Amino acid sequence: MSSKIQQERGLLLLSTISSFSFAVIGIVLGSIVGSLVIVFDGAYSLVSLALTMLSLGAAHYIHKPEVDKTTPQFAMIEPAVIAIKGSVIAIMCLWSFYSAVEAILAGGRDINAGVALAFGMVSVTGCYATYRYIKLKSENIKSALADAEAKQWIMDTVISVAVLAGFFIAKLLMMTQYAGYAAYADPTMVVLASVYFIIVPVKMVWLSVHKLLEIHSQPMAQVMSK
């Protein structure tokens, strides 16, 4: 097995373990403190875990020696996987946006801002460290699958920053005459994060579909030479 393949699998495995850890912590802690945005963070990590498993399966298949790497079907595997990842993330963003708007219309959500702030700081640090490591390594081995993982992690990092900022604002509001508005900080940050995030997966899907159409329309020799 080549060094590139080993490194790619290692990065995907690291992403899998990190996604699982953040998913469990986010969903459990978010449910305990009553935070929609922390649950959203955990749910995103859970979706990332499922998508990373898909990438691991694709990486394992395309590196099998018995697989014919000269067919159009083989060339379509990576962009197809990335298109699926982008589509699922986009759907999750839309669902989260809808849930957050519902919460705002219902009067917001009361949360334990102190615990949430601590979670936010840990989450930002962990997600960004994972993103930087995968990003740097994926550039060295030129892996499209690992690069897609890095895109997932930068999105998760921004979610975590939104969590931290939202709870910091909520904490400040609780110490003022505007304490009644603190309940809106949590779902508002989900709305903002969802709107921001939808851009990245849409771009992923657009570029991947364009690549799939390019592969379909060109002779295989031209595709493999790129």
Textual characterization of the structure:
With 226 residues, the chain is mainly alpha-helical. It has helices at 3-33, 36-62, 72-75, 77-105, 113-141, 144-174, 185-197, 199-217, 220-224. The relative contact order is 0.16.
List the helices and strands and how they pair.
Elements: H1 3-33, H2 36-62, H3 72-75, H4 77-105, H5 113-141, H6 144-174, H7 185-197, H8 199-217, H9 220-224
Helix pairs in contact: 1-2, 1-5, 1-6, 2-4, 2-6, 4-7, 4-8, 5-6, 6-7
* Count of extended strands: 0
> How many DSSP H or I helices?
9
Going by helix content, strand content and strand pairing, the class is: mainly alpha
Shape: elongated
Low-confidence stretches: none
Over the alpha carbons, how many angstroms does the gyration radius reach?
Answer: 20 Å
Task: List its salient traits.
mainly alpha
Could you provide a short overview of the structure?
The protein is mainly alpha-helical and 226 residues long. It is built from 9 helices and no strands. The model has no long low-confidence stretch (mean pLDDT 79).
